[in-house]
Amino acid sequence: MLCEIVFNAERKTTYPMVVFPYTRPPKTVVNSMPSGWFLGKSETGWMRGDVFFEYIANGLNKWLTEENIPQPVLLLIDGHKSLLTLEISKFCSENKIILYALPSNTTHILQPADVSVFKPLKTEWKNSVRMWQNYILPTIERNF
User: Fold this and answer.
1) Burial (CB count within 10 angstroms: exposed 0-12, middle 13-18, buried 19+), residue 17
2) What pTM, to 2 d.p., does this model score?
3) Residue-range definition of the domain harbouring residue 68
4) Partners of 2 in the beta sheet?
5) Are residues 91 and 129 in the same domain?
6) What pLDDT, on a 0 to 100 scale, did the predictor assign at position 90?
């Protein structure tokens, strides 16, 4: 599972997109998505060009319009080749979204959000999962 979140310098955030490893997601997953969130799907659960395009075209661009964000806008992305498609490039060019691809797989170093927000979030998530696995799950199994 992967979560795509875009925000600007004013700390405004778009609706997130969560990518699940399904070709047809279960109804429970679809029904549990918060209002406005986007559901992406790929066989692996990783971001692909078609999933990224769907988010840019129907999520980010719509949000930019609704929030009256002045254009052009700069969108920093991981330069992984799966995100850089001709379709995305054309759409962004037509809609005044400047794609700037950082060297692939370096966002954990070069993007401020990855360093200041997502790294601590991932650390806390891992700690919570570990705690659940070590303390909560055994208690549940013992009592049922």
Assistant:
1) buried
2) 0.68
3) 2-110
4) 19
5) no
6) 96
